[in-house]
Design a protein that fits this description.
The protein is mostly helical. The chain is built from 3 helices and no strands.
């Protein structure tokens, strides 16, 4: 159940992330109001980082900036915390 819930959660946030990145890229091209980077960071933290990664490649958006360093750090921390949570909830109970 943990895996299924995680998959559904991340899939939903990934789809939202792809849409937000698309809107931000479109706004960047048109010179309009952009999505705040804090919002993009929130999408990563909420579990949409796979969608953010895909969108960055699809739209060639936010791939060459200092944002990438922050993106990678947030994703690495997210993965470590996820593994820790999994270990605490499931593997830790078997000892």
């Amino acid at each position: 159940m943990f895996y299924l819930s995680s998959f559904v959660w991340m899939s939903i946030w990934s789809l939202i992330s792809i849409y937000i990145y698309y809107k931000d890229k479109k706004a960047a091209i048109a010179g309009e109001y952009r999505v705040d980077e804090l919002t993009l960071d929130a999408l990563i933290v909420l579990g949409g980082w796979p969608g953010c990664f895909i969108a960055q490649r699809m739209f060639k958006h936010k791939t060459r900036s200092a944002y990438q360093r922050r993106f990678r750090v947030i994703v690495a921390v997210w993965i470590v915390l996820y593994i820790g949570l999994w270990n605490f909830l499931w593997a830790g109970n078997k000892i």
